[in-house]
Amino acid sequence: MPGSPRGGIGKVCLGRPAQQQSMSRLDLEMLAEIELRKDEEQAAALSIVRRPLVVPSARQDPVLSMNHPFYDVARHGILQVAGEDRFGRRVITFSCCRMPPSHELNHRRLLEYLKHTLDQYVESDYTVVYFHHGLNSRNKPSLGWLQSTYKEFDRRYKKNLKALYIVHPTNFIRVLWTIFKPLISHKFGKKVIYFNYLSELREHLKYDQLIVPPEVLRYDEKLQKLHKGRSPPPAKTPPPRPPLPTQQFGVSLQYLKDKNQGELIPPVLKFTVTYLREKGLRTEGLFRRSASVHTIREIQRLYNQGRPVNFDDYGDFHIPAVILKTFLRELPQPLLTFRAYEQILGITSVESSLRVTRCRQILQSLPEHNYAVLSYLMGFLHEVSRESVFNKMNSSNLACVFGLNLIWPSQGASSLSALVPLNLFTELLIEYYEKVFSTPEARGELSTGVPEAALQL
Question: 76 is in which domain, residue-wise?
Answer without folding.
Answer: 17-228
